[in-house]
Design goal:
heterodimer; A: 114 residues; mainly beta; 11 strands; 0% helix; globular; B: mainly beta; six-stranded mixed beta sheet
Amino acid sequence: EVQLVESGGGLVQPGGSLRLSCAASGFTFSTYGMTWVRQAPGKGLEWVANIHQGGTEKHYVDSVKGRFTISRDDAKNSLYLQMDSLRGEDTAIYYCVRSAGDSWGQGTLVTVSS
Amino acid sequence: QSVLTQPPSVSAAPGQKVTISCSGTSSNIGNNYVSWYQQLPGTAPKLLIYDNNKRPSGIPDRFSGSKSGTSATLGITGLQTGDEADYYCGAWDTSLSGRLFGGGTKLTVL
């Protein structure tokens, strides 16, 4: 069974940093591209970033370019999202997603507030 | 970044059929595959349709997808109260090098 388990969310002040992690199991992690998708409270889904298998190709939504970094460790079956210079508008549930969305984690809540 | 355009809400009676539209452009829906996701209240989204019209295992054939030009449609037949959820379309956008989602459609089964 495919499982994606996010962690690392929490309350952070504007301008602060957080690192989200996603532990994957039940499939050959290294052979899949991975994605982060977020959902602000009461709002729709927003694609944040994705990373191809091998980790050499990455893409970001404009609003996080230069502030967020997606990475992966295939030896640890893990996906990461380093979030710096956080803003209030980054407040959302962050989902770890396999490929284009065939499996989703339960999400981790990031709240940016003073 | 722009989103794909969906109606905010649709409704129908139990047992009836409903369709949800998703409108885009040639850089996304027109030249890339469309997926559809169901998000039940308080849960993570779940894949319903991929590659325009394919259903993952376990998704009943009451759910169907189609695409024509720069628009896509999700169809749900035999509506059940358990189908009440938010539905999102998604597609890669070649110009943006990013994935786009529709704004979501809330389905109410009256």
